[in-house]
Design brief:
This is tRNA A37 threonylcarbamoyladenosine dehydratase. The chain is globular. About 40% of the residues lie in helices and about 15% in strands. The chain has helices spanning about 5-15, 15-20, 35-45, 80-90, 105-110, 125-140, 170-180, 220-235, and strands at about 25-30, 50-55, 95-100, 120, 145, 160, 190-195, 200-205, 215.
Length: about 240
């Protein structure tokens, strides 16, 4: 039975498509500025089963752009905050919460379960990001990936494309290079921005660990990336 809270989605998509979403399982790895809003949009679309992965805690510097980041949640695990939020959106959601850093062992263990209809990569460190994408490709798990939203201001420059078609994005360039080493060149849908980044807005600091640098961000750009990622997932699950 389709719950009342999904009545507007039901009106748009029809019963069959909504029921299809209710029977899907989506994995979202990374719950920061992009991943948090992406996970929320997937839940609000009616996907019935989700697994969310993130070991980070809320820092007040996240408040400008991250769904789980509030003054009241500072210091709490992002995965726990998002879990409460997603269950408040859909109390019937079958939700698995993994407050862990995604590493090769966890990636393999997760993806070997064979449970996922779609995977979403919102990982912001290079090596685990590439490992995750490669392992999804090996198993023919559909995957959508976020490239860099930092340092960008113009939403009109955001695009959905194959990873091979990305440009003017440093993260995408590094990801492409690492993927090429694994003989992966195409077949991964990504959200990226073709806007040039002002390198004066990037600083190298130990505070960025495990990354090497911090980059300036504005509230709406990661959210738009997350919404566009969720649109890839939902439209692909519905074969649209």
């Amino acid at each position: 039975m389709i719950p009342y809270w999904m009545s507007r989605t039901q009106l748009l998509l029809g019963n069959e498509q909504v029921e299809k979403l209710m029977n899907k399982h989506v994995l979202v790895v990374g719950l920061g500025g992009v991943g948090g809003i992406c996970a929320e949009m997937i839940a609000r679309s009616g996907v019935g089963k989700m697994t969310i992965v993130d070991a980070d805690t809320v820092d007040l510097s996240n408040t400008n752009r991250q769904i789980p980041a509030l003054h009241s949640t500072a210091g709490r695990p992002k995965a726990d905050v998002m879990a409460e939020r997603l269950k408040d959106i859909n109390p019937e959601l079958q939700l698995t919460v993994l407050p862990q850093f995604i590493k090769e062992e966890l990636t393999v263990q997760l993806l070997n379960s064979g449970e996922f209809d779609y995977a979403v990569d919102c990982i912001d460190t290079l090596s685990p990001k590439v490992e995750f994408l490669v392992e999804c490709k090996k198993r023919n798990i559909p995957v959508a990936s976020s490239m860099g939203a930092g340092g960008k201001m113009d939403p009109a420059r955001i695009e959905i494309a194959d990873i091979s078609k990305t440009h003017e994005c440093n993260l995408a360039r590094y990801v492409r290079k690492k993927l090429h080493e694994q003989q992966v060149r195409t077949g991964i849908k990504v959200v990226f921005s073709a806007e040039k980044v002002d390198q004066d807005k990037v600083i190298e600091t130990e505070k960025a660990f495990p990354k090497k640098s911090l980059i300036g961000t504005v509230s709406y750009m990661p959210a738009i990336f997350g919404c566009m990622l969720s649109s890839i997932v939902i439209r692909d699950l519905l074969d649209q």
